[in-house]
Amino acid sequence: MAAYLLHLAILAGIYIILTVSLNLIIGYAGQVSLGHAAFYGIGAYASALSALNLHFPFPAAAVSGMLVAGGCGLALGLPTLRLKEDYLAVVTLGFGVILGLVFLNLEITGGPDGLAGIPSPNFFGLSFRPASRYLIIVAVAVAFVLLLTYRLVDSYHGRALKAIRDHEITAQVMGINTPGYKILIFTLAAALAGLAGSLYAHYITFINPETFGLHTSILILAMVVLGGMGSLAGSVAGAVILTALPELLRQAHGYQDLVYGALLVGLLIWRPQGLLGRGKLSLKFLQREG
Amino acid sequence: MFWQQLFNGLTTGSVYALIALGYTMIYGILGLINFAQGEIYMFGAFVAVLLLATGQVNFFLAFALGMAAAAALGVVLERVAFRPLRGSHPLVPLISAIGASIFLQSLGLLLFGPEDRPFPVQFTFSTVTVAGVPISTLQMSILAAALGLAGLLVVFVRYTTYGKAIVACALDRDTARLMGINVDRMVALTFLIGSALSGAAGIMMAIYYNGTYPRMGLLPGLKAFSAAILGGVGNIPGAILGGLLLGVAESLGAAYLSSGYKDGIAFAILILVLLVRPQGLLKGRGD
Asked: Rounded to whole angstroms, how far apart are CA atoms B269 and B275?
């Protein structure tokens, strides 16, 4: 039981990173990405491959996972973020589908079998394979991501982002480089998702394309909406609740997606600010001007 | 070989065009991407297949009832998942549509089961040779039926009062309201027509591939959206053109480039279009 709780805690940590990073895109840049699991997958594969083929130690593998995922985010964001928000949703969705096919068809990614035998982190001869030790690495990563996003959101750049989200044209008139900020935040979020992927790959030590499909992207989206778009504390709560909920509802297996779907629609109608969104502020940004 | 692939592409493309019409009309009037369009397509196919499986219903009645069921689902969806959110930030209905899509897909899984059902009626189709190219009459009938329905829609929108009212709402909802048009009704009508067409598309694909399963709508739905953008979103002839072009590109790409990446071709085209000509081939209302 304790081992199982540890496992859930590690997964919850990984999902917190994913949810917080997607929330940067949705709640702060005002865009929807439906391909967040794709960046998660890129990070996992890049990190696993650099550890397996180039024998990178874990920190270097994690950084390469972040860099590759961030680079892909930049490459995808540059052409699409200048367009209206709904296009990004479709493009990222399509990107997720293409990437799933790439993982399935490439030889280096092991095709449908995936990659096995990914090494666990090992510092100065101390193995971090046991879940109790791996949890420390995940906790450090979560703390780093939360601190980074908290500082970012509260900085000059964070205020610029909120201005873009609330009224893009006004923000532009105030001299804020709106496409630049959107691309920056999208790249950063992709890199953080890559970090989560790296953490997942070196924990489970086995990855295959299935983990990084549309289902996972929707799950992360549900976590963001449940916690509250634009609320960091909400993202943490949303990730923890939706990691624990399926375990509590074991018998209701098969109804999970039904619940996520109904949850998304129902929340938007009755409580669009989510569980922890700041009532008035969040509601204000949900109203379309004019 | 080439002409054969071209004709295969036109057949699937005409079905993409039917779904794309629903996307483009709904986008035109509400500025909303209805992600659940693919699930409406699945629902239409299932209703027709289940009715036919009883053996009591003739094919044309089952086809019509499948379309009607899809249309009803579309109207309910608009009432439940979109109308309460009208007027909010564009992000909100978008996420609601994603939620509705996931909900309907898993509902389909629970109601109809995960297995792939073959089409209950066997058709005997012959192959005719036109100018040295063998073409199955099944493909010809699908192409003709899809283009016929699309043509009916064009006539409806251009020449009837209701069609013109929909266009008026798409151009300017507030002014349309001032002219005495019941905007809510027109939005519901748009969902009704778009969903009926998607239902018809679902039934055609169920016959063509001889299979019906809960996730069948996911990829055709996304590809049809790419087709709508390719043609110029909000533009009805554009959606038809986009659907046909996409079907052909996919079929030729799978034959001559790589069949493993067949499902990625539509999205590669989508990203290219957004880069080079975001307004689409025929100018749309998108950007």
From this structure: 10
Q: Say if A8 falls within a structural domain.
A: yes
Q: Which domain holds residue A182?
A: 2-212
pLDDT of residue A138: 92
Q: Give the residue ranges of DSSP H helices in B113-160.
A: 137-159
Determine the average pLDDT of the residues in A14-28: 92
Q: Which residue has the tokens 């991501």?
A: A145
Does residue A225 contact residue A264 with C-beta atoms inside 8 Å? yes
Q: Does residue A258 form part of some domain? A: no
Complex confidence, ipTM: 0.76
Confidence of residue A12 (pLDDT cuts 50, 70, 90): very high
pLDDT in tens, A89-101: 878 888 888 888 8
Low-confidence spans in chain B with pLDDT less than 50 = 286-287
Distance CA A285, CA A272 (A): 10
pLDDT digit string, tens, across residues B180-204: 888 888 999 999 999 999 999 999 9
Closest CB to B107: pick one of A90, A258, A288. A258
Name the burial class of residue B195, with classes exposed (0-12), middle (13-18) and buried (19+) by CB atoms within 10 angstroms of its CB: buried
Q: Is A255 on the interface with B (CB under 8 A)?
A: yes
Nearest-CA neighbor of A35 among A208, A219, A217, A220? A217
At A181-202, the pLDDT tens digits run 889 999 999 999 999 999 999 9
CA distance B81 to chain A (A): 6
Whole-Å CA distances, B100 to A81, A218, B110, B213: 25, 12, 15, 18
C-alpha B21/C-alpha B237 separation (Å) is 9
Q: How many domains does chain A have?
A: 1
Chain B CB contacts of A213 under 8 Å are none
Is residue A224, in this structure, part of any structural domain at all? no
- Judge whether A286 lies within some domain: no
Which one of A22, A25, A216, A268 makes the best mutation probe of the B interface by having the most chain B beta carbons within 10 Å?
Answer: A268
